[in-house]
Amino acid sequence: MDTTIDHIEKGSSLGRDAWLRLKKNKLAMVSLVVFIFIALLCFIGPFFGVQDPTTTHLDAKSQPPNKDFLLGSEHLGRDILSRILYGGQVSLIVGFIATFVSLVIGVSYGAIAGYVGGKVDAVMMRIVDVLYALPFMLIVIILTALFSDSLADVEILQSLKEKSKVFEPDLLLLFFAIGFVEWLTMARIVRSQIITLKKQEFVEAAVSLGLSHPRIIFRHLIPNTLGSIIVYTTLTVPAVMRLEAVLSFLGLGVKPPNSSWGSLIKEGADRMYSDPWLLVFPALFFSVTIFSLNFLGDGLRDALDPKTSKD
Amino acid sequence: MPSTSPRARVANLEKLNSNPNIMLRVENLCTYFHTKGQVIRAVDDVTFEVAKGEILGLVGESGCGKSTLSRTIMQLLPPTSGKIFLQERDLSGLTPAQVREERLNFQMVFQDPYASLNPRMTVFTTLAEALKRRHPDLKGDELSKRVGALMEKVGLAPRFMKKYPHEFSGGQRQRIAIARALAPEPKLMIADEPVSALDVSIQSQILNLLMNLVKELDLTMIFISHDLSVVHYIADRIAVMRKGKLVEMAAADDVMERAQHDYTKTLLAAIPHVVRR
Would residue A23 count as lying in a domain? Predict the structure, then answer.
């Protein structure tokens, strides 16, 4: 039989099938390309002759778009384009890291609650209910007030701040505060999926083989919830970015001289009658990104929907 | 399905009670479910033995408790009372860790081959995982060889080992599920309606495969079905179950030709016959 193993045929995983379906969805693919383009622009763009985002040009205050300041300058003469790009880095990093935090906590918490079941499940999910009921803004304000100063003293964070143009110790608070709220929904989604899945025969077969609980959870259960996890994640990233924008708009998130799309929109809104470009361009970048992520999420949901998968 | 069925081992079964070669003994087994103040006696005081090398057919209508019985024997459901002995080893007295080790000796083929295979795992991953339970050190070429050999044993070409369950037909999937059950080298195999989800044309192939495997690997099998004619084809002895209790148990031909219990007669009458006109 050694001879037959030479020409093993390749299989097509459910993930690959979903990708093929996604590729047929024009809106989702355009969104994917637009999103990648914006992300590349934000992270690589600044290396190609963009002005420093914090340098003030007092001789060129509040300029409309021109050849020195492609998207104009604000009241202290700082370049809007470079502020948008650096601010985009902050917004995207917050969006992805906070989502990642909520993903890790939510998936493990929900999977354990659903798998163990019974009283453990009941207690774990009541905790989620209680956290759900707490007003989000209150948590964020308390977290900011409590930890803002003490975080500024941590040396590692200080050195990080010096190395990177965009990192602020306060950002950590944003990750935690947003991740803290977003994991709740993820936990609920994953738990309900696990409860359905664990009654399936392939899980009974895994138990019959005497596999360990972690192996059953991580190899047999969680991979089968990936579809909903991916869809919910793509929809969480824009939700998180909106939250960050709201917080920065309220002055609780990113603080000057740093910028995020949220804080730029706030500054722009303050001067929207005299210098409209201050509002229009950050808002344009922000909404195009949110739109593309949402369309991508919708496309993924269609592509991963088990009802349409070939069987 | 052929009307005559092989009865090679049936002669030995007369001596069953005096035979020390008992693979499985179930004593006064009860599995009850409690729902909304009601007690459902899914398995109610069931006692029987299965000899080494025997195929025991278990028949009964839907909801009679045959699947609950098999899942209780498989240690997937806790028994309410009673004992299960696998080769004189009392399974009810074991710690969870001991049960995990003992599980390798009894494996199950499930009813629905579309639900019993993990859709995210290739045939190779599924079978390698099962093989490694008995031989944790297997890896690389040796592991692929063993997976390939296992696939050939159930009539699948090894070149399909990197494919996913949804790329196979129902019958092929059931072969994969059988291979997975064989991988840990079990002594007892429980097949819970393994052909009821398959096309009639495929059913006899799978039945013949199971019968050959039992002979070739010296397995003992409990074959569950609601279809008396299927059970008659494959089993040495037949046990008839109704409302959680065993109502009749005898050599397969005896049940078919000289049924004692009224319920068995009803089941027999339900088998469709071709009437010549």
Answer: no
The verdict on a CB contact (< 8 Å) between A205 and B119 is no
Give pTM, 2 decimals: 0.78
Q: Does some domain include residue A131? A: yes
Interchain pair B163, A9: CB under 8 A: yes
Rounded Cα distance, B240 and B166, in Å: 35
CB-based contacts of A262, cutoff 8 Å, min separation 6: A91, A244, A245, A246, A247, A248, A249, A253, A254, A286
Whether A301 shows a pLDDT value over 90: the answer reads no
Looking up residue A295, the CATH number of its domain turns out to be 1.10.3720.10
Nearest chain A alpha carbon to B133: A209
Kind and range of the H or E element at B86? Answer: strand B81-86
- Cross-chain CB nearest to B119 (options A14, A207, A211): A14
SS3 for A96? Answer: helix
Which letter does DSSP use for residue A60 in this model? G
Using CB atoms, which residue from A10, A208, A226 is nearest to B107?
A: A208
Nearest CA in chain A to B104: A209
Nearest CA-CA distance, residue A25 and chain B, Å: 23
**Is the reported ipTM for this assembly greater than 0.90?**
no
**Chain segment A144-189, per-residue pLDDT in tens:** 777 766 666 666 666 666 666 556 666 777 777 777 778 898 999 9
Tell me the residue range of the domain where A267 lies.
Answer: 35-44+71-304
Indicate yes or no: CB of A8 within 8 angstroms of CB of B162.
Answer: yes
Contact A220 B114 (CB under 8 A): no
Q: Of A108-112, A235-239, B13-17, where does the model show the most confidence?
A: A108-112
The answer as to whether A100 is a domain residue is yes
Q: Is residue A181 part of a domain?
A: yes
Domains of chain A: total: 1
B48 close contact with A: CB closer than 8 A: no
